[in-house]
Amino acid sequence: MKLTRDILKDHNEKIVLRTIRQMGEVSRTTISKKTGLSIASITNITSRLLEANLIKENRYGKSKGGRRPVLLGINEKHSWAIGVKVGYLYLYFVVTDLLGTPVLEQKIPLNTASYNAVVEKIADFVNTIVKIPEYVDRKFLGIGVAVSGSVDSEHGIVKSSYILEWGNVPIGPVLEERIKAPVLVYNDVDSFAVAHYTIGRAKKYKNCIFITLGSGVGGAMILGGKLYTGRGGAGEIGHMTVICDGKKCSCGSYGCLEAEISFNALVDRIKKKTNIESLKNRSCLTTEDEAIHYIHKALQIDREAVIEAFDEISVLLGVAIKNMINIFAPDYVLIGGEALEFRDLFLKKAILIARENSFGDLGDDVVIDIDDMGEVAWVQGVILNLIEKEVFQVDGRGNTYEV
Ligand SMILES: [Zn+2]
């Protein structure tokens, strides 16, 4: 089988392939009308795409008299890609088909967050999948890596990740060398944003803000229909100052949103408010699951203290959302992350504060939504853009689904 890249060096082939993807199932005549290419060209191009196994002939369409047209669709099993979220002491893998649809998910624990260990585990996972019989003949498109912190996606470098304690780690080039396949590295919240913008509810909007709440507080922005990363690392909403002389943050600054409202900050607030010894003396909690467990336990035995703590958090979150609305005038704000589990205790008030205090009418019409995709979105965005880059992108432009 020829390499996908060789088949797709022709501009018109990519246009046809994109059209087929956009339409789902489509006849040659419709592709011709949609692209402006002649029926003869479409027949040639689609034969090449069929020969390369990139598309398939599907069921027969409706006939307007005469022979019924054959409908063409993407052969999603032509190739596969892997996405991995590098979390603190775990890796979360998602395998997708050519359309970026997840077909397999797996979470594995790690003993260490060291970058060598992470590279080895990712390589092991790729080697395991490659050996599955049904994948042997399919093309491996590469790996999308999602990491917390500041990322230089162009060079595949994690500039700094406080959670992982990584600084200037060239994980992209190192993994490419190790597995001999393309690697795309994104900040994990950027990946989350791209997934929601490409296939989620955010796709109706051009200016979107994403905020994720959990053991960290993350942020990302789609502005004018494009992911905005600045020099790499833009959108660190979690490190916006919300209290001038506030708590010390993992980034070294004080009073950052993350230092004030993350799970750890929430646990500290509960400990300060409660008089119940078992809650007060609880030692340091390291993982997200431990913090969630603590909050649930606190809700059972001292609900009032927990409600007071969440109330403080809702004010700070409301101020942060208001600031983002004032600066970017977004159409759409999406809140995600593990803390949504407790959303009844803080989100309504935070949104109210944000809307009521926004400048002029900026807070009135902005859609404020909550994540409905869950953990997979953290990985799926970078996979979708990897597939776009490797297969569907025309002339290096556009990473959206429009033709
Ligand atoms: Zn900070």
From TrEMBL:
Family matches, as SUPFAM superfamilies: Actin-like ATPase domain, Winged helix' DNA-binding domain
Q: Matching PROSITE patterns, A to Z?
A: ROK
Superkingdom, according to UniProt?
Answer: Bacteria
Which InterPro entries does the record match to this protein?
Answer: ATPase_NBD, ROK, ROK_cs, WH-like_DNA-bd_sf, WH_DNA-bd_sf
Record family assignment: Belongs to the ROK (NagC/XylR) family.
Q: What is this protein called?
A: ROK family protein
Taxonomic lineage per UniProt? Bacteria, Thermotogati, Thermotogota, Thermotogae, Thermotogales
